[in-house]
Design brief:
- There is one protein chain.
- This protein is an alpha/beta fold.
- The chain has two domains: about 15-225, UDP-n-acetylglucosamine1-carboxyvinyl-transferase, Chain (Alpha-beta prism), CATH 3.65.10; about 240-420, UDP-n-acetylglucosamine1-carboxyvinyl-transferase, Chain (Alpha-beta prism).
- It is built from twelve helices and 22 strands.
- The chain has helices at about 15-25, 40-55, 85-100, 120-125, 165-170, 190-200, 240-250, 275-280, 315-320, 345-355, 385-395, 415-420, and strands at about 5-10, 30-35, 60, 65-70, 80, 100-105, 130-135, 140-145, 155, 180-185, 210, 220-225, 235, 255-260, 285, 290-295, 305, 330, 355-360, 365-370, 375, 400.
- The strands form six sheets. It has a four-stranded mixed sheet, with helices on one face.
- Helix 1 packs parallel to helix 3 (about 85-100), helix 3 (about 85-100) runs parallel beside helix 5 and helix 7 (about 240-250) runs parallel beside helix 11.
- The protein binds shikimate-3-phosphate and phosphoenolpyruvate (PEP).
- Shikimate-3-phosphate (S3P) binds near residues 15, 87, 163, 188 and 192.
- Pathway: Metabolic intermediate biosynthesis; chorismate biosynthesis; chorismate from D-erythrose 4-phosphate and phosphoenolpyruvate: step 6/7.
- GO terms for molecular function: 3-phosphoshikimate 1-carboxyvinyltransferase activity.
- This is 3-phosphoshikimate 1-carboxyvinyltransferase.
- It comes from Alicyclobacillus mengziensis.
Length: about 425
Amino acid sequence: MGSIDTNVEISGSKSLTNRALILAALAEASSVSEVRGILHCDDSHWCISALRTLGTHIDIEGTTVKVHGCGGSWPVTNAEVYTGSSGTLSRFLPPALATGEGKFTLQASEQMSRRPVGPLLDALSTLGARVEFLQEPGYYPFVLHAQGLEGLEVEVPGNVSSQYLSGLLMAAPLAKGPVTVKLQGSLVQPAYIDLTIRLMHDFGVSVESVTTDENTEETSAFLVTPQAYTARTVTLEADASTAGYFFAAAALTKGRVRVTNLDSRTVQPDIKLLEVLERMGAKVLRGEGWTEIQGPDKLRGGFSVSLHEFSDQALTVGALAVFADAPVTVTDVAHIRKHESDRIAALHECLTRLDIRMDETLDGFTVYPGPVNPARLPTFDDHRVAMSMSLIGAVVPGIELLNPGCVSKTCPDFFERWAAIGVGVEMLDS
Ligand SMILES: O=C(O)C1=C[C@@H](OP(=O)(O)O)[C@@H](O)[C@H](O)C1
Ligand SMILES: C=C(OP(=O)(O)O)C(=O)O
């Protein structure tokens, strides 16, 4: 196909939507927050549905929602709550529930029930909650007996998911005393913690970062004192992770894509994809509230890049690498094996079917560019597999995706958008 040359507006950030909904629900009882620019997708659907099950009053008008706060005392104290396949909801809700009192049965999709939550629930147990696993210890489903959070010190690992820490931080101000959350090991995707702390700040709460190692000055713990969240009106940024596929489409087709509603100074980690695109020869224009990519004649490869800080883009980089002038290696993403799918194995399977060589390591991969042999690809019920393989489909005719509907996790209208920018998309019956 020809070059993609277009302006696009991207829907609100999934990460910000689920954080804002939960923080607004935790705000002082009877206060009403207005959250503007939410993303409508599976992950936010289950978040709204869970909060409503717990008695939170939520009015929705387009992409604006009004959320009535409960101050951590959930109106419904004996509830069955479903978190779907959403990692954010599944890791943010248990701490928020543990701030109150009640018996909550938490269920998730089969996919989410394979993703670990043990370290988060261990931390909540230390803080006073009681957890009864209904199937496998450390995984959904489980019953959470909540009796408020004690002001204590807890430790969580940072190398599996940053969402444990985000979830604990958001609940911590509603504990009975100061809570210190210590990090064990290095933290994956640390900017998500900045996102959490900034939004907490928007709702009137502060978090203190504690540095114990003067040499590295790395934050090793967070201190949160008892504070109330105040209802606010907040406007959410566009989703930088979804924007990544549109930036990549420009890079891949010698095209031009301007995302008209995303400023490159966002704290969302996936904006760092721009650095990889620049390295591959794309030109990045950064404007006030917008970001534009102009693709090169040929994508440059021949480098290795750590995606530790923005690993949701690992498959995007993997898809682009197929068309580069030399191999590209991605490192430091072991934790994406525990995302919606084992993403390294999923990419390997897809590229192998396309006759593209990929070498897998425990924590990354190398893609060797070559001619693509069109094939039917599995998507592993993983939206990012579907969207990144759609990038290959944007330049190679005949790529078929099984279960393309899995994009609804974060971008339900992805294929309509893909068609609107000029990619040939045909829906098949089977
Ligand atoms: O906090 C968040 O909003 C997210 C954190 C990251 O998860 P992990 O830290 O579990 O990798 C990221 O992959 C996910 O898409 C969103
Ligand atoms: C890992 C992801 O999602 P989550 O952890 O929020 O389910 C993602 O969107 O790539």
